[in-house]
């Protein structure tokens, strides 16, 4: 009779442990459903963020393209102005050559006038007329010489303007190159940040869940109104300690990951994920 009573108590305890295991599995199932819901919401939020980021990048590319087109138009206008100024410079050089020819002709004529000075002395009445013509010619020559000087000054000013426009064009091209390099750096930084967030989501949804579920299951055992022996309590606490250690290690790893994400230097990726957490099983039968 005493043996049957002990077997009955043993069977009763086994049933209670099985009941606790069922409750633990039920709690894990509910927790998994809640985590799946949270994970789906986070994925949806991430998709929305990626769409917004993609639109912003498209807008930036459109602005850069628009600015590049404006620079091309400005470059074409500068080339056109340069051609016009070069054409005008050639015209000024041609006019300068013509003035030089006329100047040589005037010098030759002046020599001719000097050679005929003796003849002019004999023709005093005609001398005044010839002197007036010579003075007028000298005035015209001086005026043309002044015009030539003005044209030379204008040519120098045009050359300086062309040099200034060339410098502005080179500065605009440098700014466009720097803006494109900044865009490439922004895209790389965003990619690394997204990879870090993916790894963080995986850690929260998979690796943290297991030790929490084990701790909940063991706490359910302790909540039962059962008079456990000292060895049984030590055994239950022994199951609780590895889960707590795993949870503490995951917390430290999660903190390190957050620091890496905040500095945008994380090197984690979906292909680097390894779950080192050992699986702890609660025995179904106790001796």
How many β-strand stretches? 0
Query: What integer is the average pLDDT?
Result: 80
State the secondary-structure class.
mainly alpha
- What overall geometry do the principal axes of the alpha carbons give? rod-shaped
Give the fraction of residues assigned to helices.
over 70%
Question: How many domain modules?
Answer: 1
What are the segments in which pLDDT stays under 50 over at least 5 consecutive residues? 266-287
- How far do the termini sit from each other? 21 Å
H-E order: HHHHH
Radius of gyration: 49 Å
Largest sheet features: none
How much of the polypeptide forms β-strand, as a percent range?
A: under 5%
Annotation field: number of helices: 5
Task: Please describe what this structure looks like.
Helix content is 88%, strand content 0%. The chain is mainly alpha-helical and 287 residues long. Helix 1 (2-115) runs antiparallel to helix 4 (209-223) and helix 4 packs antiparallel against helix 5 (230-262). The longest helix is centred in the first third of the chain and has 114 residues, at 2-115. The protein is rod-shaped, with a radius of gyration of 49 Å.
Key features?
mainly alpha; rod-shaped; single chain; 287 residues
List the helices and strands and how they pair.
Elements (H helix, E strand, L loop, with lengths): L1 H114 L1 H6 L1 H84 L1 H15 L6 H33 L25
Helix pairs in contact: 1-3, 1-4, 3-5, 4-5
